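As a warm-up, study this chain.
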Amino acid sequence: MRERKTLKDLLVEAKDASELMVDLAYASVFFGDDDIANEVLRLREELSDVIVELRTVAVLAARSREDAEGIAGVLHMASAIDKIVDAAEDIARVTLKDLGVPQELRLDLRHADEIVIRARVRDESELVGKSLEDVELPLECGMWVIAIRRDVSWIFGPEGDEVIRANDVLFAQGPEDGVDALRALAGAPALNVISPAASSLTGLDRAVDLLVEMKNASEVAVGLAYSAILLRDAGLASEVSHIEDATDEMMHELERWVLRSVKEGTEPDRLRGLLHLAFASERIADAAQEMTRLIEDDEHPHPIIREALAEADEVIVSGTAQHGSVAIGRTLGDLKLRTELGMEILAIQRGGRGLYRPRKTVHLAEADRLLALGPEDGVAEMLTLLGDTAELEAYVDDDDE
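Now compare it with the structure written out below.
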């Protein structure tokens, strides 16, 4: 008889799988890869069962009115995650139905600082029989394995002692120039990613830029929403609300540029996929904002929710580049926040505007406020680089409590 999973286990699985689905769905668009898109549909089918069981276990766990009020929050989370999953499936179907994705979009998204790829480990691969820690993929090719599919089971966020087997399907995230290096190690053929050619800006180019920004913003919103609930942080919840408002505005502006690009001569069929992707990104941001309602009016999320979200070993931190900081004028790549400190910059707030998932070529300016995700032991170093002594002192005081 199959062992019944706990409410916490189901919530962790739903969260991890939904985040992976979004990453893979966009990757399927970047590469025009039906295999990656089908992985999304495979995950969707499995996750439907997980969410049904999550709701069932939650209802059965309520034995009093007080229990029911707490469990309502779990059901609220399940509903929001389900909406993210639906949006990810819609993104993948853009690839499978060949809904007219402009090549400009594939090139722009593909050449982000970090992308997600899929590679099946062949029998002859040198990775077979070695642990993730042994092969040191981040050092070898700059890629992090974020999940492994082994037959029909999934391993999300695999530990370093996880041993790679033949026919494992690795899902990894990292820089573009690490894609073919990882595929070579796995024994898979190269993708031969082509660099984009320079061109004059058109209405279509502007629509594509907006969609990239919407994608980045919606992904950041989800990460911030989970952290806001875990930390019961109204400030982070407010950030999510601002992002959701921004994606609405970007959607309206994107529609205008799409109409202008048609006027400029772009075939309407080339734009169907663009609009589908924009609507899906907007829905992901909406679902993120829906999650944060759990902490509105000073409500306390059910302990199970906080325990599930606390499974991650990463924290959200913000810091501002101060006058005289060594970070000012340098690029994110120069500062090596990701490679040396493990801190991923989710957003930079500058002059009342947010730059989401900024690329490593972005130069920091005085008063830039950074939102970052990473391990606790990287927080103090990042704040020191920014010269943000106030946040550093507050962080140290919180850590001592």
